[in-house]
Structures are given as structure tokens and as C-alpha cells.
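Researcher: Here's a chain I'd like modeled. Treat it as a single chain, no partners, no ligands.
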Amino acid sequence: MPREKSNTLSKADIAAALSVIHDSTLTKVKAAEIMDTISEVILKALEEGKTVDWYRMFNLTPEWKLAHKGRHPKTGEEIEVAAKWMVSARLSQTVKDAVKQLPPPTL
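Model: Modeled as a single isolated chain. C-alpha cells:
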């Protein structure tokens, strides 16, 4: 049964595109392995507290968020949100411009 066309670009789709771009000298399997390695490198850098700067795509920066008061979304009750590490993601202007040119959705 063929897969339905989706608005999601999957790892398999990217691996297939890399294989086509590199004139089949790069197999889909090898392209997927390269993508896995890139993911591992990015995650390791974040675990070490480093900022990841992917030129023309994004910056990922680990940030320490202090404890603060918040509200439970269903009950409205005030709650204490614990301090924790989070990742701040900043998209490049190239990415923002690519999305900005999309036509409005049809509702």
C-alpha cells in the first residue's frame, strides 16, 4: 500500500534526496547513517552545554531557567515550576524567509 503524501519531511525523505543529489554514489542507507551521526554530534554538544550553530538554519543553545510560579492550564491553580535546563532555538533569517513566502492556508 503506497504512503499518502504528507506535509512532513522525514529522515527517509532526506536520505532519498541526498542519494539522488549525489548521483547514487551515496546510498539511502549511508545517507541515513550520516544523518544519525549528525544528530548524535548535535545532542552530545548540547549535553556538554555547547551552542550548536548550523549556518543558514538555526542556533540551539542550552539555557538554565530559574524556578518560577505558573498556572495550571486546566484549573488555573498557581503552581511552582522547578528550575531546569531547556534548549533555546533561534531560526536563521533564511528559514524565516522560506516560511514567510508560503501562501495562506485554505480553511
